[in-house]
Amino acid sequence: MKTKSDTALALQQQFLAQLPALWPPLKGSLALVKKPCIRKHCSACACGDKHPAWIFAFTQGRRRRCMHVPKAMVPVLRRGLQNGRRLEQLLTALGPELLRAHRQQRDQSA
Fold it and tell me: What is the pTM of this model?
């Protein structure tokens, strides 16, 4: 017969087995913005097109922060944001799963 700790341990092992595939997990947002440059006679800025730039926005403490993202890092950040959402889904599902497993074990013991 499985004990309560066996059930929790099995859930823990399932959770930990999924973590390596979720690296890197990130929380925030990635946006393509158009910014003016500092050159005085830039033709793109003069006609209003501006220059595309990637920005990563995140919360640090209670403040919203933004960082410039090099174009080469965009795929890594996209994957990280997707992994962060998947990790959040796993964490959300873990509480009810743990409670169901506990109740099932409790009912079998009774």
Answer: 0.80
